[in-house]
Amino acid sequence: MEEFDVLEKSNNRTQSEMKIAHFSWEFSPAIWGGLGTFATEITQKQASLGNEVTVFAVNNGNKLNTSENWNGVEVYRPKTLNLTSSFYLFSNQDLRSWGSNFNFFTDVIGYNVMSASKLIDLLVREKGRNFDIIEGHDWLGIFGGIIARQELGIPLVFHVHSTEVGRSGGGGSPTIKNIEYEGAQISDCVITVSYSMKDELKKLGFPEDKIRVCWNGINPNKYDPKKIPFDKKIQLRRTYNVADDDHLLFFIGRLVTIKGVENLVKAMPSVLEDFPNTKLIILGVGELEENIRILINSLNLSEKVILRTEFVNEQDRILHYAAADSVVLPSLYEPFGIVCTEAMSMAKPVVVGARGTSGMREQIIADGENKCGIHMNSYDPNDIAWGIKQILESKEKSKQLGLNARKRVIEHFSWDVVANRTLDIYKEFIKH
Fold first, then answer.
1. Residue pLDDT, tens place only, 176-185
2. How do residues 331-368 score in pLDDT, each as one tens digit?
3. In the list 53, 172, 226, 263, which could disulfide-bond 47, CB 3.0-4.6 Å?
């Protein structure tokens, strides 16, 4: 196996600020959601600020490079073995109930053990490397972080992007809940993505004195509406048969219950009563695809609601934001909501679910001179419709909301702001 040598420092820095190890199941090019986007972006930014950053990530299908320098970040992707049959011998009833998904659990454990071994035995004990802090992302990466902390005595940060209770709508796997709980007790610090999530973690028994909040970020230079040619936006609208005078709503996200997309579809008849020149694009994949198709047809919305069920690359995603007039994100549970930040950076007014655990409620200011969107109750289709209508009532006000949204992103949600906040938290616990 070809191993990665210590990163050379650039000429303009003589010493790294910190040596940081991340355990993140998702990392480019294996990204399936917000966790992978966050880990990919934050580690690049940490490295660019003069830190020595090492990431341990999943080797998707054991087909990726086992080690490489990726945009200044040292990345290891250990190959894992099929442990399913062996682990099944001593698994509990909860894990056995996972059925065919049990192999996913064993892959996660295998990745964590192999990654921790790589850090402890190869990098530290054999090569003499040292690290200042370890960060494990969600239950998918905290297990490896716990092993490394116990072996090396290095401070451990548990970065909680979501919880099993929240993702499952109140249920979920007791095993994963236990991993999350113990990760919080063993770690030195818990970083989470919103104040709303901090409240949730406190209710779950996470030690309050360990919890620090750091919002997620976005690159406003990449998500910049001025960089999308007008003809490109018109061409995309024509692809969906959206006329110039139509108001185009856009939803992007997984087609699962907690994203609230079914209630969004149910809200459309009320919206169309008052604003008939409105269309909605739903872009995403998930288990509710067939249910949503049936719902669209049953409400006679096939001419007004376009369902596109596929992954698109980032540039296509940016183009969809640019072509839309406003974005609607009716999540029932959203610890942060990176798609909200993306839409804001593209100067779009955003209608967001604001009930329960909602980081989007913190992103979107719903009143005052800095107002940039609308808060609504995602559990109620009538309230979703009300929120959309608030945007549709005035094109000028809608445009101003979008401008305010982009301004807020630049001030509070750039990766520079997020990375520096994260590093400050690290330093606090390194001192301890």
1. 999 999 999 9
2. 999 999 999 999 999 999 999 999 988 999 999 999 99
3. 53
Token pair listed for 96 = 């056995």
Amino acid at 211: I
CB 193 within 8 A of CB 200: no
Same domain, 346 and 256: yes
Q: What is the distance between the alpha carbons of residues 144 and 235, in angstroms, rounded to a whole number?
A: 47
* Separation between Cα atoms, residue 397 and residue 96, nearest integer Å: 54
Q: Is 365 found in the same domain as 322?
A: yes
Statement to judge: residues 88 and 205 lie in one domain? yes
Read off the tokens for 170: 């109140």
CA distance 129 to 62: 26
What is the number of domains present in the chain?
Answer: 2
Query: Could you give the CA distance from residue 257 to residue 333 in angstroms, rounded to a whole number?
Result: 9
Specify the pTM: 0.87
From residue 129, alpha-carbon distances to 66, 125, 145 in Å are: 19, 7, 17
Structure tokens at 225: 């509406």
